Every structure is written in structure tokens, then in C-alpha cells.
Amino acid sequence: MIMIPLLTSLGIKMPKTFSKAITTPAATGECVSVLMDISFSKKQIEELVRKHNTCLVWGGGLDLAPADEKLIKAAYPLSMQSYSRTIVSIMAKKYAMGINHSLIDIPMGPTAKVPDMKTANKLKKQFIYVGQKL
Amino acid sequence: MKVHVEITDAIEPIGAGIGAILQVREVLRVLQQHELRPMDLQNKALFLAARIIELVGMAKGKAADELALKTLKSGKAWGKMQEIIKAQHGNPNIKSEQLELAKIKKEIKAEKDGRVKSIDMKVLNVVARTLGAPIDLKA
């Protein structure tokens, strides 16, 4: 929420979509919704990006990654959480938005979602691998 | 797709607020360069912003860090945020003090002196969610 205006003010185009909180107290979706509307149609989003080089919008309901949404629905009642599915889910949505450069931050700490360097490095490799295929 | 991955330290939450309203208050304070802005949040945002500046080839190393800092300090980043807020039907002149906080507040004081050795973010998450987050933005 700080980086998007900072970088887009420099002329970098960043059509930002985000989710709402699933396991955290507040995701970018909840935070942005405090200050402005976040639900827009595809047409409105195109208009925002054309005019402002950016948008801060909720990706749900846009059908960005329809297979991913079905997988989430199936995994939720089974409390299945897999790192690989998370990676595919993130990258599919970026790809659908036409992103060609992406920075992935993996916060790592003993009580964070990614607890250790070994897991973090494995995720890093998988992110880069999927990126190469897109 | 060009992908760059940063693994960052997460031994404690960034910023002091947990929950949408409290987190947004800190975002506004960083963008508006308020005296009470949390510096850890500002520094992390600047660090990652500089990595994107590098990734797209706009500047490298120290020059990328300086460009990110200058863009924030000069108010250019906040100006752009005002433009986005306006385009998405919000109030572009919002101040961090204008955000309405939760009505019920409870202060819990430590019973003895000491230093915080570690913070368990999983427990903080449970507390916030028990209080109503993420549905209640003020929780």
C-alpha cells in the first residue's frame, strides 16, 4: 500500500489486485477498503489502469484464475494448505493481470507462516521456476 | 515473467498496529511522513520498492534506494496515493487522526519490568481474530 503509489508515481505500471484475509487479521483488501472502494468490474479496472497506470482492487470475482478458485473451495473444508498451491495461486493471478516483472517477499520467522530458511529457499526456487514458465 | 524473491526477517510484526484500521493509520503516516510513523514499516517498504526499481532497470543499488527514499520524502508517493483514492471514490484528504478507532479499548500493563524477548505472531493473530478481525475493520 506504500509501494504502489511510490512506484507508480515514478511511471512504473502496476495493476495491483489483492485478496481478502483468509488466515490473517487484515489483508491488503481490508486495509485498502478503509480508504476507498475496492470492487470494480473488469472494464472499470482497465479504465483505472489506463488513466492512472495503477489500481488497488480486489481480485475476487474477476475470474482471474478460475481453476484456482475451485481448488481453494475444495481445499478449505479439508483444511488443506500447501505451499505449492499457494505459489501457483499467486502466480496465476499475476499472469492473468499481464504482469511481466514481479517481486515476491517471503517474510520468514519462527512464528511466521514460513518458519525457516530451508522452507523459504525452497519456496524461492519454486517461485522462480514457475516464473520462468510464464 | 521476471521474478525476484526476497526473503526478509519476520521475527516480529512490522509496525505497531494489528487490524485494518490500525495498519492503515500507519500506512498513512508513512506516506504523509507523519512524526509518529513506524520506521520499520517505512524502511521495509523502501527496501522492497528499491528492489522493484532495480528489477525494472530504472536504477541500481544505492541509486535505487535513494530514488525510493526521495519519492517518499518529497510527498510524490502520497500525491499519487491521493490520485488513486480519488479515482476509487475515497477521501483524498484523509488524515491518520481522522480514522475512527474501535469504541472499546482496554489497556493491559505488564506486571513487572522487563524486556520483550520474543513475540508470537500466531498468538497475536488469534487475539485479533477473536476480537472480530478481519470482518470488523476496527478490531
- Broad shape of chain A: globular
Class of the largest domain in chain A in CATH?
Mainly Alpha
Profile the largest sheet of chain B: none
Q: How far is the first residue's CA from the last residue's CA of chain B?
A: 38 Å
Greatest interface (CB-CB under 8 A), with counts per chain: A-B, 63 and 66 residues
The number of helical segments of chain B is: 5
Helix-and-strand structural type of chain A: alpha+beta
State the total count of DSSP E strands of chain A: 3
DSSP strand tally of chain B: 1
Structure report:
The complex is a heterodimer of chains A (134) and B (139). By secondary structure, chain A is α+β, with helices and mostly antiparallel strands. Chain A has two domains: 1-62, no CATH class; 63-134, Transferase, Pyrimidine Nucleoside Phosphorylase, Chain A, domain 3. Chain A is built from six helices and three strands. Chain A has helices at 3-8, 28-35, 42-52, 66-75, 83-96, 117-133; strands at 14-18, 54-58, 101-108. In chain A, strands 1-2 form a two-stranded parallel sheet. In chain A, helix 5 runs parallel beside helix 6 (117-133). The mean pLDDT of chain A is 91. By secondary structure, chain B is mostly helical. Chain B has a single domain, classed as Nucleoside phosphorylase/phosphoribosyltransferase catalytic domain (Pyrimidine Nucleoside Phosphorylase, Chain A, domain 2, 3-Layer(aba) Sandwich). Chain B contains five helices and one strand; from the N terminus they run βααααα. Chain B is globular and about 50 Å long. Chain B starts with a strand and ends in a 9-residue tail after the last helix. The model of chain B has no long low-confidence stretch (mean pLDDT 96). Classes of the chains: A alpha+beta (134), B mainly alpha (139). Chains A and B meet through helix 1, helix 2, helix 3, strand 2 and helix 5 of A and strand 1, helix 1, helix 2, helix 3 and helix 4 of B. Strand 3 of chain A pairs parallel with strand 1 (2-9) of chain B, so a sheet runs across the interface.
